[in-house]
Amino acid sequence: MRAPAVLCAFISMLGPAAANPVKSLYTTVELKSCQPIKRHKDADAWRCQGLPGYPVYVAAGDLHQFVSTGKDAEHRRAARQTLGPFNTIFEDGSRRATIEWRFERRGGGHVPYATIVRYHTSQHGLRGDVLVISKVTPEETCHVAYIDALANADAIALARRIADATARTFDCRTEPQAMGEKGKSPM
């Protein structure tokens, strides 16, 4: 049996549950490709490409970064939410970061309901990585939960489970919570 036939046989054994699993799409925020929308000596902001209909707003000020998505992203709650410690979505001075979009398929399209973004944090000489899970809808974007990526062995799998279980129904008036193991990354 050839490899493609084996693969097709394996996929057919998975059954209907595997036919439409939740998946992820990835977009890159690269500031040199983004449109500057605010320049100030203490803060900058950019509009970057995300998924169709969901542009990405990135702002930086006072050694903190803010990420929001969707139409009018700069006016959504996520545009005012960040972590307490100094933070950046860009690793080691890079100007490029990845956003993971959790989505469901509707009418042949991809409809996002959450994003997962890695923030690099520092406080009192300690450095860490925190995964920020945000709710995404056509009307609102807000932080849902924070995962200490250094304290949790499979932090991205945990972040995906939390996004899939809670983002769609999360009330953006509620404060986000740290979930999973804690204590290795400043949060």
Give the oligomer, counting copies of the same chain as homo and different chains as hetero. single chain
How many separate structural domains?
1
The average pLDDT score comes to 88
**Estimated helix fraction:** 10-25%
In terms of DSSP E residues, the strand content is over 45%
User: SSE order in H/E notation?
Assistant: HEEEEEEEEEEHE
Low-confidence parts lasting 5 or more residues at pLDDT below 50? 1-20
Radius of gyration: 18 Å
Structural class by sheet pairing and helices: mainly beta
Largest sheet: 7 strands, mixed
Contiguous helical run count: 2
Number of strands: 11
**Shape, principal axes of CA atoms:** globular
Calculate the terminal CA-CA distance, rounded to whole Å. 52 Å
Note the topology.
Blueprint: H1 3-14, E1 23-30, E2 35-39, E3 43-51, E4 54-61, E5 64-69, E6 86-88, E7 96-106, E8 109-123, E9 126-136, E10 141-148, H2 155-166, E11 177-179
Parallel strand pairs: 10-11
Antiparallel strand pairs: 1-7, 2-3, 3-4, 4-5, 6-8, 7-8, 8-9, 9-10
Describe the structure.
This protein has 187 residues and is mainly beta. Mean pLDDT is 88; it is low at 1-20. The termini are far apart. It has helices at residues 3-14, 155-166, and strands at residues 23-30, 35-39, 43-51, 54-61, 64-69, 86-88, 96-106, 109-123, 126-136, 141-148, 177-179. A hairpin with a 2-residue loop joins strand 7 and strand 8 (109-123). It has one domain. The longest helix has 12 residues, at 3-14.
